[in-house]
Amino acid sequence: MSSRGAPVLFVKKKDGSMRMCIHYWQLNKMTIKNKVKEADVHKTGFKTHYGHYEFLVMPLGLTNTPATFMDLMNQVFQPYLDQYLVVFIDDILVYSRTENEHDEHLRVVL
């Protein structure tokens, strides 16, 4: 069993099935966010009854965000792809033969 892990919560969906939610807040604290260019921040604006808001980091709901993000992930992790790493949008799978090897792979990726 790994000493690393995030809390998991299951939430019932409208159809009665369950959705698994994983709380990665500790990992997210260490993650470098993709910033929106200052000149483009106003383009992400939206209004609610609480006020006007703009994204400073790239939200996944914009049309080209997944493709842009996937391209960035492939560039960043290119040396490790298919050696011990698989990337799909914001999901990263690190695989290894041994626990020591896995610890090293995680250090490289993080």
Q: Regions with pLDDT < 50 over 5+ consecutive residues?
A: none
Class per helix and strand makeup: alpha+beta
Largest sheet: 2 strands, antiparallel
Record the strand order, biggest sheet: 1-2
Average pLDDT for all residues: 89
Keywords:
110 residues, alpha+beta, two-stranded antiparallel ribbon, 3 helices, globular
If you had to describe this structure to a student in words, what would you say it looks like?
The protein is of the alpha+beta class. It has a domain of 30 residues. It contains 3 helices and 6 strands. The strands form 3 sheets. The chain has a two-stranded antiparallel sheet. It has a two-stranded antiparallel ribbon with strand order 3-4. It has a two-stranded antiparallel ribbon with strand order 5-6. The radius of gyration is 18 Å and the shape is globular. The mean pLDDT is 89.
Brief synopsis:
The protein has 110 residues and is of the alpha+beta class. It has helices spanning 25-30, 65-77, 99-109; strands at residues 8-12, 18-22, 46-48, 51-53, 85-88, 91-94. The protein has a domain at 33-62.
What is the topology?
Elements: E1 8-12, E2 18-22, H1 25-30, E3 46-48, E4 51-53, H2 65-77, E5 85-88, E6 91-94, H3 99-109
